[in-house]
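Example 9 (inverse folding). The structure is encoded as follows.
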């Protein structure tokens, strides 16, 4: 018995691309097997815009299949702090991923509960005043007061609020991808170290430009140093460059070695103390994309006098070394501030900076 032909409703929704994935698959299989429906319906005009949207949905499904969104991205989605394009991508993923959708619902419920509690009780962290380089900033519940009465964009206001109440801002999509790659990659294990020396820069940070300038502290009696740079992917780690630095404690990549933005790199220094070699730990770095650099440049033009806002912008895109410079200015202005100390602790934790993580 031949399978039933497409109904008028199915044909209409097929041409408007108004189908879920399972039904689309069934209809395509039927059209392959049924010459009558194929001749009747495939000659009809198709809504090109709807088809393009469905193609985008399918591509997103292919990209997201088998992967779950990081908690930071789901939290930012629930708070509405993602940019519109990323907000839509996450929404598409949640429609098709029951696990992430359940997590988002739990976060929304918790967020709603916290909002209800804020209406009746102001927590100690929600009543905060700090000195910024642009003047004082006060946060009372959801209300923010700035000394210089600036008009802030919603995302900038969320940065300030999250920094003062939680100590950090949500990382960008690109940074999230790199950090998850770092956690999941099989990075090389460092050799025997002397803990009295360490890498200086770049250490676990995104950089604005390439090539990076590598710097490290000297090792007593070292005759020479060499540097290796590796690129990390989901599949493996591959050597990009290895060079001898003589007895210098800094150096750069040669011009012919080009680094790509938004890629994850590791570097390490080997000190030679004849006949022994001692190696530092690995540190990661990446190069900022042109789009992210333009976004930060605009924020710097709008808020050049606010260390707190600039810290939030740098942290969101992983410019952790620059974020530390802005944090240092805030710590000088607020030596006894718990929120500023919390920001410092969260920033170091995000970078994974310890004596062991960068030592020899």
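The amino acid assigned to each position is listed next.
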């Amino acid at each position: 018995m031949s399978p039933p032909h497409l109904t008028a409703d199915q044909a209409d929704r097929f041409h408007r691309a108004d189908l879920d994935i399972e039904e689309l698959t069934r209809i395509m299989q039927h059209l392959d097997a049924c010459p009558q429906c194929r001749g009747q319906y495939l000659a009809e005009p198709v809504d090109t815009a709807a088809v393009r949207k469905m193609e985008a949905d399918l591509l997103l499904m292919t990209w997201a299949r088998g992967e779950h969104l990081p908690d930071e991205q789901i939290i930012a989605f629930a708070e509405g702090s993602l940019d519109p394009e990323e907000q839509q991508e996450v929404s598409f993923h949640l429609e098709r991923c029951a696990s992430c959708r359940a997590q988002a619902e739990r976060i929304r419920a918790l967020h709603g509960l916290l909002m209800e509690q804020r209406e009746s009780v102001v927590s100690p962290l929600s009543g905060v005043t700090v000195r910024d380089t642009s003047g004082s900033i006060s946060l009372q519940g959801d209300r923010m007061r700035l000394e210089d009465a600036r008009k802030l964009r919603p995302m900038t206001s969320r940065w300030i609020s999250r920094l003062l109440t939680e100590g950090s801002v949500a990382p960008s999509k690109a940074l999230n991808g790199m950090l998850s790659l770092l956690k999941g990659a099989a990075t090389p294990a460092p050799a025997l170290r002397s803990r009295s020396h360490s890498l200086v820069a770049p250490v676990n940070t995104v950089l604005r430009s390439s090539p990076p300038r590598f710097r490290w502290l000297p090792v007593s009696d070292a005759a020479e140093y060499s540097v290796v740079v590796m690129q990390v992917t989901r599949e493996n780690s591959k050597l990009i460059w290895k060079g001898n630095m003589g007895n210098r404690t800094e150096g750069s990549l040669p011009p012919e070695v080009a680094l790509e933005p938004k890629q994850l790199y590791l570097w390490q220094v080997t000190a030679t103390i004849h006949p022994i070699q001692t190696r530092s730990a690995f540190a990661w770095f990446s190069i900022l994309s042109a789009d992210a650099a333009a976004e930060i440049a605009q924020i710097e033009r709008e808020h050049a006098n606010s260390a707190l806002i600039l810290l939030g912008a740098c942290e969101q895109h992983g410019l952790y070394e620059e974020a530390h410079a802005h944090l240092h200015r805030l710590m000088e202005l607020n030596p006894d501030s718990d929120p500023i100390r919390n920001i410092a602790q969260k920033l170091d934790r995000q970078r994974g900076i310890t004596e062991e993580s960068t030592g020899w």
